[in-house]
Every structure is written in C-alpha cells, then in structure tokens.
Amino acid sequence: MTLKTKIKFYGGTGEVGRNAILVKTDRNILLDFGAKQIPGERQLIFPEVPDEKVDAVILSHAHLDHVGGLPYLFSKTSNALDIPIYSTLTTKKLTTLLLDDSVKIGGSECMIQPIVDIVKDNLMPISLNKTIRIGETTFSFFSAGHIPGSAMVDIRFQDERIIYTGDFCLNENRLLMEPADLSAFQNIDIPISHLITESTYSNAFHQSRDTLERKFIESVKAGLETGCVVLPSFAIERTAEILRVLLKHFPNKQKIYVDGMGIKATKLSFNSCDVKKSENLFQNLKQASQIATGPNRKKAISGNNIIITTAGMGEGGPFLWYANRLFSQDTIIFTGYCVEGSNGRKLIDGSETITVDGIETKVSASIRQHSFSAHPDKTDLIKLYRLIKPENIFVVHGENTEEFSKELEILGYNSKGPKIFDEY
Ligand SMILES: [Zn+2]
Ligand SMILES: [Zn+2]
After folding, report:
1. Taking a C-beta distance cutoff of 8 angstroms, is the pair 316, 107 a contact?
2. Out of 3.40.190.10, 3.40.630.30, 2.60.120.260, 3.60.15.10, which CATH number does the structure's domain 6-204+374-416 have?
C-alpha cells in the first residue's frame, strides 16, 4: 500500500488511549494527541512525538485519550507557539476544563500551568461543516455524535480524501446526543481514499438502548430499597446522560445529587449543537442538587438518595471520598467502561478493596455495572464502512485492531491494523 498522502501512526495503535496520527500532505497535520492513565496511578503516558515538524493539530473531541498529551507535545516541540490546534468550540471549552484539571492532578512533569496555557492559547474553534485551508490541504468537521463537540474530520488534498472518525456513535436512541451526522457521505463528491477508524467495540454487539435503560433503572430502584446509590460516571457526556435517564424514570421527590467535574462539563455542554434540544440541559441540572462540600456529601449518603459522581472508572474524583464511607446496604453502579486494572474493574470483578494513592481501601457497598456506551459496536462500524466505501481502512483505537483488520479483509476491504511508527 503506497499512498500519495502519507499517514504515520504515533499512538493509539492496538490500544484504547493516547491517539496520535500524522497525516502528511503538503503540510504535516497531527490528528489528536492523547494520554493514557496507568490504572492505580496518577501517572500519564503519551504518544511518541513525531520527528517531523508539525504544522497543525486537529482535535476530534475532548476526551483524555485524544487531547491529554497536548502539553507533552508542546513541551517537546521547538515551534510550539506556532502550532494552531483546531477543534469545535465545545471541544475547545471541554479541553480547557480537562487540561486545567490535569494540572491539579499532576501525573506528568509537563502538566504545569504555563505549558497548558500555551496549549489553551493555541486552540482555534471552528464551526461544523466549514472548510478550513492549511496550505493546499483543506479540512472540515462534521458531528460525530459521541460526546458534546465531538467531530469526524474530513481532509482533502489534491484528489485524495481522508476521513478520521475520532470516536463516534450512530445510535438514534440516546437521550442526550444527536447521532453522528452522516449527510457528508450521502453524496460522495470525491471518493474516500483513506478511512482512519476507531474500533473500541469491534468485538461486541451492544444491547438495545431501551433494554439497557430498563435494566439500569431496575438496579437503581433495587439499590434505593436498602440504601443510597452511587453512580460513578465520566464527567463529559455521561454525567448529563445519566441525569436525563434518571429524571425520565424517577418522580420529582426522588433526591438526585451530582458531584465532581461532571457539573462543570455539563454546564459547558449547554449550548453544544449536537445535544438534543427536546429537553433543556440547564433545567436538567437545576432539578438535581449539586454537591460542593464534604458536609453535603455526608448528607447525600445518609438517605436513600442517588449520587452521580466522577470518576467513571473509580480512579479519582469524589468517588474516592464515597467508596469507603458506604455501607453494605448501599450500592455502587458503574455506568461506563472500566479499563483492566482500574478500581472500577477490580470491584466489578469481585474485589472488596481498591487502591487509593497506593493504599488498599475496603469497599463494603454492593457493586453493579450497566455500561452506557457512546461508541459503535461491530454492526455500526460495518454499517459506516458500507455507507462510505473507503479504498483503504486503517483500524486504530481498539485492543483488537489487527484481528478486526483481518476480518475486514475477509469482507473485501483493503485494511490495515497499524503498529506504532508504521507509515503508509
Ligand atoms: Zn471519546
Ligand atoms: Zn477515545
């Protein structure tokens, strides 16, 4: 496979975390630069920094595995001040929140405010569906339906067209997000030469959203019969979505608390055009009680209340305050994917302790999980490929990229599951 446009992989190959892909046209354009958190530790690991001079960075969305490495990239790059970072407006806001929070947590010597401030200064918000020119190369964003602000990237150079999916979701049935906007593929003016696709759930078939919601609500109700219910949830998107699901199913008198970074992330998502407007997110948040202090937390766990809190995988945030203060009659329900080795994964697998700053801590509450995925499953991944008919597919952002790539070859696609430093 020899391409006119060169594509080189610097991170996110064969793993979920630290995405970084360099597209070389007449300019060197870096797609995402993420970070990966090592479970049980605060430390972050980053993609490899390209040898090539980077002319621009384009961000797909504001998750740590797509933007968390920007301070590292900037600390290692001599022309950092001159590198524009393009994203949607909501991604700019949420990236700022995430990076400022990363400074508080530490996790790397590059996570310091002066470097993060340079990154923030270079963030340039771009509207969806607007064409931006960098040299002879153009690109545009269209909505990816994954989290507020998330976008697929459509890059064009000469007669080639490259689509980077970032993380996306086609599901019509979610309460918070509009699904990915596939209208850009309805009339394909230029055939798609190269598709760089996420593959988080290339091995899985999701249950229907209605079934998932019903089972989740049953678990919450069962938990409330004996005690309080703590719902560890990702700050961005998941906190707001879980809140909407609860408000739909519980009467006004049921007390719902929201704690942690999810409050700010939800506020920054109010005006994002990809958030469903059938309900007002601002009103949703007002219907819950927002927690800011320790005494409020004590009050929240003293009754049969619901508490939505970060961190989604139990690796930080106020969850660590709650974890060892809950009793056996209380319930913790994880609402998302918990990576191998994380506190969430350990508890789901039956452990009675978690690691907090290196110290084993006992957790007495009952543990459950109902994972509200914001990613495509295998059916939806293949649905996208059938629609856009790419000449080449590069599979990244998954633990089984090589296997999935081989499956795609059997289906007749020209596909690769690249390794780090591979260039095509
Ligand atoms: Zn994501
Ligand atoms: Zn991701």
Report:
1. no
2. 3.60.15.10
Tell me the percentage of the chain whose pLDDT exceeds 90: 89
Is the pLDDT reported for residue 369 higher than 60?
yes
Q: What pLDDT sits at residue 1?
A: 56
Q: Which helix (H) or strand (E) holds 345?
A: helix 343-348
Residues of the chain with CATH 3.60.15.10: 6-204+374-416
Other CB atoms within 10 Å distance of the CB of residue 129: 14
Could you read off the pLDDT of 230-269 as tens digits, one per residue? 999 999 999 999 999 999 999 889 999 999 999 999 999 9
Output DSSP code: residue 213.
H
Instruction: Give the model confidence (pLDDT) of 406-422 as tens digits.
Output: 999 999 999 999 999 99
Contact 233, 336 (CB under 8 A): yes
Instruction: Provide the residues around ligand 2 (an ion) whose CB is within 5 A.
Output: 63, 65, 167
Task: Provide the greatest CA pair distance for the chain.
Answer: 64
Average pLDDT over residues 22-43: 91
How many angstroms is it from 397 CA to the middle of ligand 2?
Answer: 7
DSSP state letters, 109-126: TT--HHHHHHHHHHEEE-
CA–centroid distance, residue 341 to ligand 2 (Å):
18
* Cβ contact 193:7 at 8 Å: no
Tell me which DSSP letter residue 183 carries: G
pLDDT, the chain, mean? 95
Compute, in angstroms, the gap from residue 167 CA to the centroid of ligand 2.
5
**How close is the Cα of 46 to the center of ligand 2, in Å?**
14
C-beta separation of 388 from 188 below 8 A: yes
Ligand 2 center from residue 251 Cα (angstroms): 34
pTM tops 0.90? yes
CA–centroid distance, residue 61 to ligand 1 (Å): 7
Span from the CA of 298 to the centroid of ligand 1 (angstroms): 32
Whether residue 282 has pLDDT greater than 60: yes
In the 8-state DSSP scheme, what is residue 184?
A: G
Residue scoring higher pLDDT (146 or 316): 146
